Amino acid sequence: MKTLFFGSSSYCLPLAVSLHKDTDLIGVVTSPDSTFGRNKAILPSPIKSYAKSNQISYFTPSNSEELSRLIPDFKKLEPHIGVVADYGLLIPQGVFNLPVFKTINVHFGKLPQYRGASPLQWSIANGEKIIPVTFMLMDEGLDTGEIITEINYETKGDETTGTLYSLLFEKAADSLKKVIEDFTKGKSKPHKQNTKNVRVTQRLTRSDGYIPWEIFTNTINNNDNSTSPIINSLSPIARSAFSFSPFRSFACSETCRRALSLYNLYRALSPWPGLWTEVNINNSINTNKPIKKRLKILEIHLEPLTFNLVPDVVQLEGKKPVSWEQFKEAYLAFNKSL
User: Fold this and answer.
1) Where is the Formyl transferase N-terminal domain (predicted)?
2) pLDDT of residue 24
3) pLDDT confidence of residue 334
């Protein structure tokens, strides 16, 4: 079985390894070399590095137009099936329909509820306990293709997007050989997605990580103060985290639900864009006009019995990370809300 793999990140490397081990991986399509670090070192993607070290053909188009121009090269390889995961570019129809059995897209999230650019982050933010590894055929729509199979992963409730990505890609890699064999031999029949409860998740930006100081402090202090008006002004993923209702099926106070929601949002936004708020810092020049600075919430946890949300490590803009207790002592002794 000749396979062609589209992927770029270190997360999806287990899929390339699985295809190389269990199929004839004839080529990979990945992102171009990029600059990293202060020294602007030019480095290849992890997928390109793997291909070079294993004498596998690789292609690094910088846009969809360049990808289309590679169709003659792909035809010479005569792929039986393509596999896409964490690639980065919009793949033209002429490319994903080229292999004999078309192209499989690996997607983390229930469809059609979590289509788009950030399905895993939205699933975590909404408190979903089961995250499917979905294998679907690519079509011209955004995550609208027919579903080949779904393999459910039951979360523990404390994983971040970063840790879940690693776990789900390992699970996808372990399942890939059987998924391809069953599909190409006709044992698994793709089925259309339903058209109800469709949600298209957007690519996250830094501003999606913002949480107002009032919501943050009310939550960690278990205050019953209403935050509904403020919640309505949050980013879409933050509003969804606070309005989703998986916790309403068991006895849990409003402060408990708010703590669970904020914790899920923190998990969803870690490692990027991260959860952050803004604090007023004393201005030594003008004491009547405090300086507003960003405060990153680097680590936070839920107490298992009380469901109290406890910050562990924070980082003030321009400073090194410190414990929450150190931060309160150094910067916020004057703030009665803490």
Assistant:
1) 21-175
2) 98
3) 53
